[in-house]
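Re: [ENG-882] Designed sequences occasionally contain unexpected residues at chain ends

Forwarding the minimal case from QA. Structure tokens:
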């Protein structure tokens, strides 16, 4: 309980700071809790967003589309790639598995130049694909799903094949249902990756295609003059990943408790 309370302090501090007035933000010595809560930071932030050339709703649509479509597509691709690596014997299987693990070692900062050149060569700069494809090409999801699928009982798959089920039916109706904790966990990581992506400005130059986190981060980076708006930005950026995590965590715990072969 003590460690849990200590780990929650940054979240609590970020929340209360968003409701502090300018006087309390620069008070010395600083106070942890807010004395006179106010919504002025959020009002000023909304004014800045409404004063931009692009409607505020456009940023929300971009963020929802990128995070939602990107997460669903990546779960689909990663699980499809992981299934044969985990449950089928084919030539080069070990080599492919090693390449998947090796690719995890390369950070996006290392591959940034190569990724930009590939996207530019494909004509995808300043499009949604320049945000979606780099994350879809990561191998962490394949590795995670491979570990979950590898532990799935082979006897169930053999019984399904005997009953006449094809590989697509087995993958979707049996394997994906049996490894639900795996892909729900991957949903958490993938959504956070798309929502908090910091490379949008590298590939996107049109204001109408920018995502909400990118725009809010630019506002908070203005310096001490917008410290209040920056605190409001920090709180708003935390809410969607936390909500997704809470909802997914409940599903993971419930599935883990009731998964397995039942007689």
């Amino acid at each position: 309980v003590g460690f849990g309370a200590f780990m929650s302090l940054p979240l609590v501090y970020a929340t209360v700071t968003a409701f502090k007035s300018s006087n309390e933000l620069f008070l010395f010595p600083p106070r942890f809790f807010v004395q006179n809560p106010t919504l002025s930071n959020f009002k000023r932030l909304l004014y800045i967003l409404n004063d931009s050339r692009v409607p505020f709703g456009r940023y929300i649509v971009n963020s929802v589309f990128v995070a939602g479509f990107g997460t669903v597509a990546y779960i689909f691709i990663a699980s499809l790639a992981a299934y044969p690596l985990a449950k089928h014997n084919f030539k080069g299987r070990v080599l492919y598995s090693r390449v998947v693990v090796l690719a995890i070692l390369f950070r996006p900062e290392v591959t940034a130049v190569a990724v930009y050149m590939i996207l530019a060569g494909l004509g995808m700069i300043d499009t949604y694909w320049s945000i979606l494809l780099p994350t879809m090409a990561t191998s962490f999801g394949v590795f995670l799903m491979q570990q979950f699928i590898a532990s799935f009982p082979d006897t169930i798959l053999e019984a399904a094949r005997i009953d006449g089920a094809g590989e697509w039916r087995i993958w979707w109706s049996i394997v994906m249902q049996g490894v639900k904790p795996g892909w729900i966990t991957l949903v958490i990581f993938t959504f956070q990756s798309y929502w908090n992506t910091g490379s949008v400005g590298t590939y996107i130059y049109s204001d109408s295609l920018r995502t909400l986190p990118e725009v809010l981060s630019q506002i908070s980076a203005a310096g001490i003059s917008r410290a209040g708006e920056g605190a409001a930005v920090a709180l708003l950026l935390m809410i969607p990943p936390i909500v997704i995590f809470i909802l997914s965590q409940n599903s993971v715990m419930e599935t883990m408790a009731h998964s397995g072969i039942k007689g």
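QA comment: On inspection the terminal residues look reasonable. The chain has 15 helices and no strands. Proposing we downgrade this to a documentation issue.
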